[in-house]
Design a protein that fits this description.
By secondary structure, this protein is of the alpha+beta class. The chain has 14 helices and 18 strands. Helix 13 packs antiparallel against helix 14. 46% of the residues are buried.
Length: 479
């Protein structure tokens, strides 16, 4: 948990948020008959130029705190998200949002944009009770004190013990499919082996991050089912481009050639992954195998360092201590770099600590920052490419601190075509990724698959790569 504020939320607490809060739409899994399904909007349409979108809102919906959901509440939620959301960038195309009547919401955009995708985002698009929004305005720590939630979803927050567990309780007044389980206890258990032991010992029904190296054992257990879930997540590393000699693209290219990609997938992901083509995972727009990749080539890496006149290089690498995959593959990077004369100091930090260090003074930050990233909604051009590498005055997720006007311009141009000509947008985004790979402010390791294991006593455990960190609890039921 980084925050209980559904507007600020932009991290792994999405696991809980998606059961407590709802957007206007949900994105369906790939291959579904329809790309979206209604959530708090029953229907929606756009103008021909994709600059005006009209949503008809669901009636007779009540928030957990008793407030009514209507167009005024939806408008307030969107305006709060645009102003202060952790993922506020998703609302960049928005010029205004209007509520012409109690159950109609109209988005006026500055440029054409896929508002259906934006409205189904897993971050920054939740509808929040007006009472809760007002409480946060009066006290920004309102949610953090555990004084309730402002959601309309099938579950509400019953209790939270930091680092230990979250208890969710079914909401009796929910408008849709209620959960078969009136209470859900989520044990915060970062140790993968402990998750496996609890699952096989019958203490829990589902393990969301069991040890990858033991998946064959779990699949052989007659009491369990294992789902190998595709995700829209991938592992990458930022180079601190403000620091010599990492300010030299040739040095960054050298280090990119010194990454043992196949071993990183084999050891870090236990084979549950595939080579990355830039920072956009395959299967999500605008992912493309036309994006060039670096090969593992120590001779070429050493030659590039020699050309740059670099020797005796010492680097500090950080990763999230909670991330088991990075814990496994970070030593592989250290060992490989040592073969070209680069000494790496590995420093595991809790994610919040690592992120705060990266967002601080770049002169005091790490040299290499490993991160697992996933798009906020199914447009990784507007998210991954923009969030991770677009120029910014103050670092947020651009933790390479890289600034490139040509790259920024390509992103801006591509974004204007996403809603009206996605093929053209993808071609421009591909050009941007080619530039990104050439300049190498980051290194792109692998796209992730995420197995989830559950008891055969439970049915309804499914995967949706667009919400890979979500588990929709009201879809679960006893067999």
């Amino acid at each position: 948990m980084t925050t209980w504020d559904p507007v600020k939320s932009f991290s792994s607490e999405i696991f809980y948020m998606a059961n407590v809060y709802e957007p206007l739409l949900w994105k369906n899994p790939p291959g579904s008959a329809e790309p979206f399904r209604p959530a708090l909007a029953e229907s929606w349409e756009s103008s021909a130029d994709k600059k005006t979108w009209t949503f008809k809102l669901r009636q007779n919906v009540t928030f957990h705190d008793g407030e009514k959901f209507n167009a005024a509440a939806a408008k307030a939620s969107v305006e709060a998200a645009k102003e202060r959301a952790g993922a506020s960038f998703i609302w960049a195309p928005l010029k205004s949002v209007e509520a012409p009547d109690e159950h109609t919401l109209v988005f006026k955009l500055k440029s054409a944009a896929p508002m259906d995708l934006i409205a189904s985002s897993m971050h920054g698009a939740y509808m929040v009770s007006p009472k809760a929004l007002a409480a946060v305005k009066a006290d920004q720590n309102y949610f953090e004190r555990g004084t309730g939630d402002g959601g309309s979803g099938p579950y509400q927050v019953a209790s939270y013990e930091a680092g230990k567990q979250v208890v969710l309780r079914g909401f009796d007044g929910y408008w849709g499919q209620k959960g078969a389980f009136p209470t859900v206890v989520a044990h915060i258990t970062p140790e993968a082996v402990t998750q496996q032991q609890m699952l096989q010992g019958g203490q829990v029904d589902i393990a969301t991050a069991p040890p990858l190296e033991n998946m064959a054992q779990l699949k052989a257990d007659p009491n369990l089912e294992v789902h190998d879930c595709p995700t829209t997540s991938n592992h990458l590393g930022f180079f601190n481009t403000t620091r010599k000699p990492l300010d030299n693209p040739k040095v960054r290219q050298a280090l990119s050639h010194a990454m043992p990609y196949d071993d990183i997938i084999k050891v870090g992901g236990e084979g549950f992954g595939s080579k990355a083509y830039g920072p956009v995972p395959q299967g999500v727009f605008p992912g493309s195998t036309d994006v060039p990749t670096y090969t593992y080539d120590l001779a070429k890496a050493k030659a590039l360092l020699d050309e740059a006149g670099v020797s005796g290089l010492k680097l500090k690498l950080t990763y999230a201590a909670e991330n088991q995959a990075q814990k496994r593959f970070a030593p592989l990077i250290k060992d490989s770099f040592s073969k070209i004369g680069v000494d790496v100091e590995i420093s595991p930090l809790l994610w919040n600590q690592q992120w705060e260090l990266g967002k601080g003074d770049p002169a005091k930050a790490q040299d290499i920052f490993l991160v697992l990233y996933w798009p906020t909604y199914s447009d990784a051009g507007a998210d991954n490419l923009f969030s991770l590498f677009h120029s910014s005055e103050e670092p947020f997720f651009n933790l390479s601190y890289w600034k490139n006007k040509e790259f920024d311009g390509l992103l801006a141009k591509a974004g204007t075509f996403t809603a009206t000509d996605p093929d053209k947008a993808k071609a421009i985004y591909t050009d941007a990724m080619k530039l990104l790979v050439d300049q190498a402010p980051g290194v792109f390791l692998y796209d992730v698959r995420g197995p989830v294991a559950g008891s055969k006593k439970i049915k309804g455990l499914t995967c949706n790569p667009d919400y890979a960190f979500n588990l929709f609890l009201n879809q679960l039921a006893p067999r």
